[in-house]
Amino acid sequence: MNMIKRTLALLSCAVLAASTGCGDSAKVKAQRKQVEISFSWWGNDARNKYTLEAVRKFESLHPEIKVNCSYSEWSGYEKRNRVWMISDTECDVMQINYGWLSEYFDDGNNYYKLRELSSTLDLSGYTDDELRYGTKEGVLYALPIAMNAETVYVNKTMYDKFGAKVPKTWDDLFAAAELMEPSGVYPLSATSKSMWLLLIAYAEQTQGKKILSEDGGLNFTADDFAVMIDFYSQLIEKKVFPLVEHYERIKLDNEEYAGAVAWVSDAKNYFGAAEEKGREIVIADYLKTNSSGYGEGWYAKPATMYAVSKNTVHPDEAGMFLDFLVNSSEMAELQGIEKGIPLSSKASRVLERDGVLKGLQYDASQKMEGCTLSELSPILENEAIIDDFFSASNDYIYQKASLNETASSFYSTINLD
After folding, report:
1. How many domains does the chain have?
2. Burial letters for 122-157: b for 16+ Cβ neighbours within 10 Å, e otherwise?
3. Using CB atoms within 10 A as the burial measure, which of 40, 253, 275, 340 is most buried?
């Protein structure tokens, strides 16, 4: 009888073990309902590939969490993000541009307060100064991934071919254009935002003042903007740069452009193909006037940032995934320095250990860190302001209005609120 009872007890435990794990916490964990969170980012094919691989690694480490991905190129992502934020349909974890922290701030109601995720998100790899970039009104809402600055990249192989020297001053650019123009080659190229920031650098140096005051107000007058518009017109007329609306990224690969003004984080994306062809790509100095001018006139900012949606229903899991993105060795090894040198000391130590801190992007980062650059205000990345500037500039370039008229017209449209 006792043997029968023991047999039945063993059978019962076996059945229980099959259905509940019989005390095996790992099996119980695996059998819990899987939590789903969403993640969005922008980037090229290479970034998408390693990010998707990182997501798969995270899911293998945390099978109780499923990460749904949404990604695209920058232009499509920026437009989609605007719709998401307005309609409260943004992803749980998202890559955001530095300026969006202010643009979508809305009294702190658009992003999650990251210090409330301390049980799953480790911030010890950041300094207080680094965390300041993601802080609004004393509250941390976003984590900077790396630092970024507009940088002058030169295909030295092409410059040498034309007998041009790597530019250090604005005058050097015009000298290079005289040598390259007969062959239809531009010494440099830039997107509208990069050109806008370059023109600000020129105007700050020549006008002897910052575009913004200490309190963030507008410090430039219509006359200062006239200097920017006129200089842009000269750059276009003398074939130093193509018009921003004519800029085509592929022309760097085709060597119709001998260089570019681009972010540190875009070094590989812009010049990887040229390096594969054996071209020598160098980081030029931050351009300046022949005289000392007013400071550098160039700015630095976080490359990109990660934030968590205020609407997430799974904040702990979102925090866990965000921690993986900025601190884990798995993500650091896959990402390398593609987005810049990681600010998280946990990630940067992995790259230092693996000997990854080298190459064009690293050189650009070193150039940035070796100069005293002002902090870029998000206001200066406002797309509407930039579009209005080049619209006004075209009126002058195409002789639809005088310089003073176009500068005054643009000045009257600026709204920094």
Report:
1. 2
2. bbebbeeebbebbeeeeebbbbbbbbbbbbbbbbbb
3. 340
Q: Write the pLDDT tens digit of every residue in 346-395.
A: 999 999 999 999 999 999 999 998 888 889 998 898 889 999 999 999 99
**CA distance linking residue 277 with residue 395, whole number of Å:** 40
Query: Both 195 and 281 in a single domain?
Result: yes
Give the per-residue pLDDT at 13.
37
Shared domain for 278 and 309, answered yes or no, is no
For the record, the structure tokens of 100 come out as: 């969006």
123 and 224 both lie in a single domain: no
- Asked if the structure places residue 4 within a domain, the reply is no
Compute the average pLDDT of residues 331-344: 93
d(CA 389, CA 196): 8
Q: What is the extent of the structural domain holding 104?
A: 34-146+303-335
163 & 131 share domain? no
Q: For position 279, which CATH number holds?
A: 3.40.190.10
Residues 204 and 70 grouped into a single domain: no
Spell out a b/e string for 169-208, using b for 16 or more CB atoms within 10 Å of the CB, else e.
ebebbbebbebbeeeebbbbbbbbbbbbbbbbbbbbbbbe
Count other Cβ atoms within 10 Å, centred on residue 158: 22
Assigned domain for 41 exists: yes
Angle at 187 between CA 186 and CA 189, to 5 degrees: 70
Q: Transcribe 294-337 into DSSP letters.
A: SS---EEEES-EEEEBTT-S-HHHHHHHHHHHHH-HHHHHHHTT
